[in-house]
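Record type: monomer structure entry
Structure origin: computed from sequence
Chain ID: A
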Amino acid sequence: MKGLYRKIGVFALIALLTLGTSFSAFAATVTPTYISGNDPSISGYSFLKFDPPVDGTKTAGDLSVTIDVSSKKWVSWTSNIPVEYIFVKGGNGGYMYHYPGGSTGDTDLRAPDNNGGKQPDLSHVNFYYQKSIVINKIVTGNPSVDATFTFLVTGPNNYSETVTIVGSGSVILSGLSSGSYSIEEINIPSNYTADDDEKDVYVSHSKPVKLVTFTNDFVEPTTEPTTEPTTEPTTEPTTEPTTEPTTEPTTEPTTEPTTEPTTEPTTEPTTEPTTEPTTEVPTEAPTEVPTDAPTEVPTEIPTEAVTETITEEVTPLGPGTTPMNFDSIYDNSTEEEEVVLIDEIVPLGDALPQTGQLPVELFYGAGSLISLAGFALRRKMK
């Protein structure tokens, strides 16, 4: 009986060990699918193959994949461009790992157990890819809110696709035909600068995956600080100072100086005797009154009056100069006697002929002739 229990215990332990090996947990982030055979094909995809799977890096176009193998049974990987399908082969079959939307790395991928229930060594690892363009967006400047960036992609066979990226990130355009493609960043958000808003790439069998990077720098808006200081100072100073100074100084100086100089100099020199304007009127009036006014009006009028006065007095007084020369001949006559005679004539002005009578010069001439005649008789008598 004891021998029977012992046999049952051994079988149970073997069963537990077998189940534990067959249903070992997966460390990868996705659950794989078992595929019998070798290197399954996926329509529209090619693959990058690590055979044998040793630590290292391989590329396909711009796609770069690096693997790290542990104990020949586990593989971890990273890539610069997201990868969607990976096949890990070992024993009679393999596991297909599918990453919807693509992934750039994972850890501890393995092959399925063999028929004996053991984990085999890795045979090879395939990374599947399509002819594709990866648009990578880098945003600098620390914006508070992620902006949406839009790209227009055009290529052969009338290919046209519009894609968007929110903030920093990437998007993949897969299943492309070989040919030249243009990627243009359109409708760039405000406050963002672009290093280059359009780039061209060529997709081919030898370069099936192309990576294009666009960088946008966020610049803090400067609208508010610029608007306020500019508006207020510009409006007020310009309006007030310009209006007042222009009106007042222009009206007053123009009216007053023009009227006074024209009236006074014209009236006085014409009415008064020609002797007085030379001494009093031209000297005082033009100098004091028209200080701020133009110098043309007072200067021209006195000059003409003085010139006419000298010309008119020379002609009538021509004969009167002859007695003055004769007076100097008298022995007993002096300048003081002449001064006395002149002073005596002034008070007798009321007795002199009035306007319309014989001129005073005629009497002076007659007196001079009589004196001359008396002087001549006197010398003859001696």
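Annotation 1: The radius of gyration is 64 Å.
Annotation 2: The longest helix spans residues 223-271.
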